[in-house]
Amino acid sequence: MFSKQLTAVFLCVLPALAAPSSLIPVKRNENPVPGSYFVLFKENVDHYFGVSSVANLISSRSVITNELEFINGVAGTFSDADVELLRALSVVASIEEEGYVHAQSTVVQ
Rounded to whole angstroms, how far apart are CA atoms 56 and 93? Predict the structure, then answer.
């Protein structure tokens, strides 16, 4: 009896494990700005359609701070739950954490 239950569970879980993931990965930054991301749209996506798709999907905990027409995307602060939703959105090509950049100075004498 135990083996029948184990087999049934295995047969239910196996397709989920074998199915390719349709979620795009989030590109991580070494020094991330917490909760801040760049969301870039696919090449064939109209910029304003992409913006409205993101705006209609995200919750009130997230906000689009900038529309980036020149790279066809948006920047904003997004909750973890909303980032997971954006990963599955068909208009999104990539998501990248915003990061801090530190300037280094070199003194030449």
Answer: 17
Do the beta carbons of residue 75 and residue 38 sit within 8 Å? yes
CATH code for the domain of 80: 3.30.70.80
Q: Global pTM?
A: 0.74
Whether residue 48 is contained in a domain is answered as: yes
Q: Could you report the per-residue pLDDT of 51-105, keeping only the tens digit for each? A: 999 999 999 999 999 999 999 999 999 999 999 999 999 999 999 999 998 787 7
Nearest Cα residue to 63 out of 29, 93, 32, 37 = 37
Q: Establish if 91 belongs to a structural domain.
A: yes
What's the domain count of the chain? 1
